[in-house]
Amino acid sequence: MTKVIVKLKHDTGTIKISVWANSIEEAVNKVLQSENAPSSSVIYAKVTPHTIHDIKRETAESSPYFFSTQTLKFFKQKLSSFSVKRYGNDKFYIYANYPRGTTQRIYNPFTKELERLNEQKEIQMNKKYHTYFY
Question: What are phi and psi of 3, to 5 degrees?
Answer without folding.
Answer: -80, 125
